[in-house]
Amino acid sequence: MTDKIYKAIGLMSGTSCDGIDVALIETDGKNHVEAKSFMGIDYTPEQKQQIKACYGMSQDDDKGTVKAMEKLSTILHADAVKQFLELLDTPASEIDIIGFHGQTIFHDPDNRFTWQVGDGDLLAKETGIDVVYDFRSADITAGGQGAPLAPVYHRALASDFEKPLMILNIGGVANVTYIGKDGQLIAFDTGPGGALMDDYMHKHTDKPYDRDGETAKAGTINKDVLLQLLSHPYFAKEPPKSLDRDAFAGTFEKLNGLSVNDAMATLNAFTVSTIALSLRHVPEKPQTWLVGGGGRKNRFLMENLEKSVGGAVQPIDDTGWNGDAVEAEAFAYMAVRHLLNLPISFPKTTACPKEMTGGKLAKKPAG
Asked: What is the CATH number of domain 151-319?
C-alpha cells in the first residue's frame, strides 16, 4: 500500500515582516515532496506597523494590543489562502491541511517561552480547512529551543543531493541546516540575518533595505566595532541554539559616529562573519551552501559569504527550488507530519531531549 499524498498549504510570516508567503505542496510527509504553487502578499505599511508594535511583548504586557494584532494577522492569512485558492481555481475541500506558522513576537527559549501569534481556530473557521499551528511550544516545553524547525524539510528536499551540504536561510535572523552524508541533521541560528541591516537602513535612509548591498559595498568595515559585535556571548554557545529577532538590539549604539556606508559595511560583515563561524560546529566542511531567504538577493553579502566560508555559495533557486517559498513549504510539510505523528524537531536541531512532533490541530467547523 502506498502512503497517502496530502495536499497541504503552508503559511509563513517572518520576523522581517514583509508579508505572507503561501505555498502549496503535495507530500506523504516523508520523502515524497512536490512543490506546486507559491504566492507572496506584501503587508501595507500600516499593517507592518501594527505587527511590529508587538515585537518584544511578553504575556505580561498589553494583551489587548496583541489580541488585536493576532486577529488582524489571522484574518490577513485567511484572506491570503482564499486569494491563493481562487488563483489556483481550487476549492478549499481539495486541501487536506494548512500549516500556520503565525507571527513570532517573542522568543526566549532559555526561559522556556516562545510566542507565535496566530489563532488556528479562527483560521480554520475562515478557510474551511483544518489547521496545524503553534509548532514550537511543545519543543520549548520539553526544554528545546523551538527553532529552527525547517531542517526536517530541507533533508526531504535534498534527499538526492551530494552531501555534506549546508542550507542557509538568511531572513531577519540567519540559520543553517547541516545535512551529513548519513542524513545527520545539525541546525541552529547563526546570528543576525538581514534584520539589523534593514532596520539601520530604515532608520538612517529613505530605503527599506540595502539593495544588492550597494550601501555596504561603498563603505569600510570598522574592525574594532566588528570585534565588539562578535564578542556577544551568543557566539560562544554550543548549538543547538536560537535567537530572538531583537537579540542584538544594542548594536546601533556601537555604530554611533560611523557614516551610513561604514555602518552598513560593518553590519554586512557581522552577518557574514557569524555565518562563517557555524563551520566550527559541523563535523565536515560542506563544499556547497544553498542560500534561501531575502539575504540571498543581497549580491555583496553573497560575494563576501563565498570568500568567508570557502565553498560554493549559490541561491537555493539554482536547484530548481523557489527560495521565497521554502519556509512556507516547510510548515505545510510539518503540518502533514503532525497528522502522521512524525517528528519535526530533533536533539541536534533544537536541543529537545528526543525526537518530537509538534503543533496543535484546529478542526474546520462541521457541516
From this structure: 3.30.420.40
